Amino acid sequence: MSLDSEQLKDGKSCLLIIDMQYDFINGSLKVNGGEEIVPVISDFLKKNGNQFDLIVFTKDDHPSNHISFASSHKDKKPFEEYAYVSEKDPNHTFKSCLWPDHCVVGTHGNEIHSDLTKLIDNGKINNTKTLVVGKGMDPKREYYSCFNDVLEEHNTDILDVLKKENISNVFVCGLAYDYCVLNSAKSSKKFGFNTYVIDNMTRKIDPNWEFNEPGIEKIQM
Ligand code: VGL
Ligand code: ZN
């Protein structure tokens, strides 16, 4: 799909580049094929960055004792099931799994790939304003969506930013397709943005998972 298509003509557009950090690309929580999409996203930004009104990079920013790490729990291993429970309402839970330690603030694995960050010049890529939004700093809260935590009790400021910038269309790419890309796209849709996932610029953790979200269009760019 070329970027002259209708999607970008109606209203302002934001490109959300999710968690393109070394731990997901070639580190402790390496996503299959993650390395392949670095040059794809980089070339796309060079060619089409100027077509967007805002480019947001998100980061998983965890403390070393984060609740999503198996190492933070007694007798738990990475990829074992785990249920997050609301402190306010014990009946409110979110079932997921635990992870190897990843994206700890201050480590190399936490950094966004330099082939992408080196495109940022004076806060801009191709004249489009860029922004970096972190999530998952609170040791007790897990975030998949870059808008809010898995229990939907805390928000980042990304919704306010998109509203302030008058964004109508949100295009999501990055890692991982079945976790942070999926859940960020679902939030974006829920908050009323026309939402697209860029299928060729994302990779999944679970090989058996397929994207299927009514109301969110899967596109190639
Ligand atoms: C993610 C698992 C744990 C992601 C973050 O960015 O998709 N996945 N933390
Ligand atoms: Zn994480």
Automatic annotation (TrEMBL):
InterPro entries registered for this protein in UniProt: Isochorismatase-like_dom, Isochorismatase-like_sf, Isochorismatase_Nicotinamidase
Pathway: Cofactor biosynthesis; nicotinate biosynthesis; nicotinate from nicotinamide: step 1/1
Pfam families assigned to the protein according to its UniProt record, in alphabetical order: Isochorismatase
The protein's Enzyme Commission number: 3.5.1.19
Record key words, sorted: Hydrolase, Metal-binding, Pyridine nucleotide biosynthesis
Organism encoding this protein: Hanseniaspora valbyensis NRRL Y-1626
Gene Ontology molecular function terms on file: metal ion binding; nicotinamidase activity
Name the UniProt record assigns to this protein: nicotinamidase
Isochorismatase-like domain segment(s): 13-208
Keyword match Metal-binding: yes
Family, similarity comment: Belongs to the isochorismatase family.
UniProt record, GO biological process: pyridine nucleotide biosynthetic process
